[in-house]
């Protein structure tokens, strides 16, 4: 149902920050649902994803973004360009900082964000691993660089201060009718979501270089007798990557498939049948983007 009432608030919130800061974990915690994949490896999120939270009187339209690098090398330039572009069109910017690992790059990011016109909220994330005094000094340090920003120490994992963060964000959203239907949680297709969840398992269960050089394509998605059937391919660049994904007697692929299936069943609240193939990319091959 599309709402037309006034006295409601609705707006776009860009979630930005360095890779691995916890942006996607925070978005999922806000929604109470995994819409965006997460992992301990940097550059897990590769494309912008909308996550929509609709309360009675407020619709938060979050845009999860790939991690930004302040000093961008070539392969990250495109990602930074995309992140910079969204900063022009949102109502609020939520900068997620990994408070356990602040570096000079965060100071540089603060300098960049200083010139923003829209409200800036700084989430000092991973506070579950820090003392009050450390959080206090970090707030003071960044507060000097960003005098207009609002700082909220929080933890996406323990959910600490997430309600407070939402209240602070809500104050800055414009009064207007909801933009999206209140039962929509993401803008992405089922095929995209399934491919992302499989990619998450690759990120989580395999070594460092492999997930970045492989890609996932969902070849088929349909519902038969109330069961969702998904056929997917993991495209790899080298034959030597195959055993890494498949594992001894297919064990690792089995573990990854099961983990992916359980996530998909939880998200859709339906039974899922999932079949994954691992195939070698041919030179010049570009998989279809779901
Ligand atoms: N201890 C702790 N760990 C967290 C918290 N939030 C996120 N993490 C962990 O940080 C890692 C990165 O989380 P992501 O949500 O994937 O980070 P991201 O900022 O989306 O990363 P990219 O998509 O790569 O830019 C994961 O291992 C999370 O479990 C938190 O509040 N506390
Ligand atoms: Mg992410």
What does this structure look like?
With 290 residues, the protein is of the alpha/beta class. It has 2 domains: 9-171, P-loop containing nucleotide triphosphate hydrolases (Rossmann fold), CATH 3.40.50; 190-280, GMP Synthetase, Chain A, domain 3, CATH 3.30.300. It contains 9 helices and 9 strands. The strands form 2 sheets. A 6-stranded mixed β-sheet has the order 2-3-1-4-5-6, sandwiched between helices. The radius of gyration is 20 Å and the shape is globular. The chain binds guanosine-5'-triphosphate and magnesium ion. Magnesium ion binds at residues 23-24, 36, 44-45, 64.
Bin the strand percentage: 15-25%
From the spread of the alpha carbons, the general shape counts as: globular
Secondary structure tally, helices: 9
Strand arrangement in the largest pleated sheet: 2-3-1-4-5-6
Q: At the third CATH level, what is the topology name of the largest domain?
A: Rossmann fold
CATH superfamily of the largest domain: P-loop containing nucleotide triphosphate hydrolases
The molecules bound to the chains, other than polymers, are: guanosine-5'-triphosphate, magnesium ion
